[in-house]
Amino acid sequence: MTTRPSSSGTAASPGTAAPADATRRPAAGTPTVAASGLSLTYHRTVALDEVSLRLDPGVTGLLGPNGAGKTTLLRVLATAIRPDQGTLTVLDDDPGSVRGRTAVRRKLGYLPQSPGFHPGFTAFEFVDYVAILREHTHRAARHQEVRRVLAAVGLSDVRGKRIRALSGGMRQRVALAAALVDDPGFLVLDEPTVGLDPEQRIRFRELIAEAGEDRTVLLSTHQTEDVAMLCRRVVVLAHGRIEFDGTPAELAEQAAGRVWASTAREPAALAGWRTGTGEFRNLGDPPDGARLLEPTLEDGYLLTLGGLPTKEDA
Amino acid sequence: MPAGRADVRGRAPTASGAGTRARLVAVLLRTESRALPWRSPLAAALVGLLLAAVPWAFAPELDQGVRLNVLRATALCGALAAAFLLDDPARHTTGAVPVPRPLRQALRVGLVLPVAALWWAAALLLSQRGDAAVRAEGLPYGAVTLEAATLCALAVALSAGVVRCTGVCAPGAGVGGAVLALVVVVMALQPDGFELFVPLRDPRWEVAHQRWAVLLAVAVLGWAGCAPDPVRRLGRRRG
Q1: What is the residue range of A279's domain?
Q2: Last residue of some domain: A217, A247, A277?
Q3: In this structure, which of A104, A253, B43, B44 has its CB flanked by the most CB atoms within 10 Å?
Q4: Cβ-Cβ contacts under 8 Å, A16 against chain B
Q5: What average pLDDT does this structure show over A242-252?
């Protein structure tokens, strides 16, 4: 982002208005997020099962199949819902109490899955609305902050356009701008690249990468490419549990020696699919003499989950 | 830190802090007035006014009993309008902001209350236009207003309940339908010991309006209970 203030609290360039006080970053040596034993059940469905997580500055990817509990975990960390059990500290505050939750909300930005807008608002008006909900009462300073975040996501030129007239990618950027108001120390992004075309996705990746340079970003996604490109760390969630926590390279390494090519479908493979060349790419324990392939993050992810979901699961 | 924010944050509500909070409320009032979904409530309110004007325009000789029921239909339109007040397409995008949801809901209702009061006064005036002899009989304005207020409060409370317990952004249409169905069922069945829509000069009038008062209190308390940020929801989102 071109005009984001530095973490020391001084504006990076003239004309910026971000508050950027030190309280929006965790105290030295403490994690941005410390979650322990988070559990949450919807009726009889276990959405989160004893999830423990520590997040530090940088972009962390959260991968998992549909229904794994990713959105629930993000909503818990964003203080939108409360867990049944477990302890949580976000930026040195405990969101368990009303006071603590309000304190956390002043320091975090949240971009939900399928963000909604008041369609009659312009991009500027909507971000201004969010800034007011973030307790910015001083009009001039607030407008300066709104201009800063809109510039940061590259929407300065269309800030006067109504949201209903913007493309899906631009709307996502409006939502990201709203999440960036106040220069939050913790940014929670729930599938922000869904529905974007490749160009928009690359642009969005760049924004997220910049956002993660000096703050903690938790990115939920189905796109293993996003994780490979953006994240220092990746967490795989399945059935409400953390199945893997490490670097993207370590996740790919899970599949080392367990990916091979064949000319026909391999019944013994945990997962296999036909590629564009007509060959099959198989995951699992390869037969003797199999032609091994270089594993990707996606291979490691699928093997962590135990292969592709069956038709019933899907 | 930009001017004007320091007092809101991290300071006890001292005189200056309270002043800044008042400024926040003033700014929020302007913004919420723009965020309010005016179209559906205004349409429902307009239909209500047209209904209230029916006796004056087409049947000035209608007796007060019929006029009372017309007013009740107008009140129901008001309740349908109220059901939309908490519709918020940006609900999830603003799901983790420091300004508490009860304040935002209260501001929305507060914004609409003066308009609603004027609308109801106009409905009462319209309903009494026409034949002077009929007008002389008079209508129990207070009691009918109590019925209207209760229906509106019930609609708002139900909308707040839907917002609290589900991920729905726009509960208005569903709650409006539910309120309509509820009123029709109660009118049709008039369950023994729980009559609400009683005719004029009926001996049960007094007791029925005591029930309306209790219902109003329950609806207001229900809204107060449902206004805080959703803690849990009935359904679950994918992912």
Answers
A1: 257-294
A2: A247
A3: A104
A4: none
A5: 94
Residue partners of A205: CB distance under 8 A and separation at least 6: A193, A226, A229, A230
Q: Which residue of A has its CA nearest to B235?
A: A42
Total of domains in chain A? 2
Q: Is pLDDT at A282 greater than 70 in this prediction?
A: yes
A-contacting residues in B 66-95 (Cβ below 8 Å)? 88-95
Chain A nearest C-alpha distance from B8 (Å): 7
Q: Token pair of A34, please?
A: 């410390």
A80 and B95 within 8 Å at the Cβ level: the answer is yes
- Choice among B19-23, B170-174, B209-213, B225-229 with the minimum mean pLDDT: B19-23
Please name which of A307, A298, A243, A305 lies closest in space to residue A269, comparing C-alpha atoms: A307
DSSP at A163:
G
Comparing alpha-carbon positions, the chain A residue that sits nearest to B5 is A136
Q: Tell me how crowded residue B73 is: count the other CB atoms within 10 A of its CB.
A: 16
Q: Do B90 and A81 touch (CB under 8 A)?
A: no
Q: Give a yes or no: residue A156 inside a domain.
A: no
Q: What's the CATH number where A200 sits?
A: 3.40.50.300
Inter-chain residue contact B104 with A106, CB threshold 8 Å:
no
Beta bridge partners of B213: none
Contacts of B89 in chain A (CB under 8 A): 116-119
